[in-house]
Amino acid sequence: MDTRAMNGNWNALLCLGLAWPVTGMGFSALTLGFIPSGLPLVAQVMGLFLAGGISGALLLAVRGVVQTQVGKGWVTAGYAMFAPVALMGGLLAPSPFESGSGSPVGLAIMAFLAIVVYASLAIGAGLAFTGGLAVAAHSVAVRIHSSVVERRA
């Protein structure tokens, strides 16, 4: 892999990592009506940044395995479909922990972990599903192509 591709991958990871907190705080402001402040805000922003980076790494890894442009399109479409679900799941996941923790530091740690775990699981499931579809579509296309070539010969 050349250095331009590596730089492009790092840039994509950074952009996805930064996009998740911005989108998450916008979602929180528009739908929930507030943006947290203090330590909960730091925990959410850091958790969303890490979840965005992990999801970007998963996206790039799955796209790297898929060999066809159609398969890469399926994987990217799957990411686009499951990213909002992962983002909302990550933002809403810390809610059960809020009542159980009396300490703001404990709440911040639990919120951070819940965001990362729930968002990563949702993205992982989505990419596994669409990556599987892409691999299956490639396999079917290869079989159809080989049978057409055999018939012509």
Kindly describe this structure:
The chain has about 150 residues and is mostly helical. The protein has one domain (about 5-150). The protein is about 90% helix and about 0% strand. The protein contains five helices and no strands. The radius of gyration is 19 Å and the shape is elongated. The two termini are about 35 Å apart. The relative contact order is 0.15. The mean pLDDT is about 75.
Pick out its properties.
elongated, mainly alpha, 5 helices, about 150 residues, about 90% helix
The profile of the biggest β sheet is: none
**Termini, distance in Å?**
37 Å
Helix content: over 70%
Total beta strand runs: 0
Average pLDDT, all residues: 75
| Alpha-beta content class | mainly alpha
Compact description:
This protein has 153 residues and is mainly alpha-helical. Helices cover 89% and strands 0% of the residues. The chain has one domain (3-152).
Summarize the SSE layout with pairings.
Elements: H1 3-32, H2 39-65, H3 69-92, H4 95-100, H5 104-152
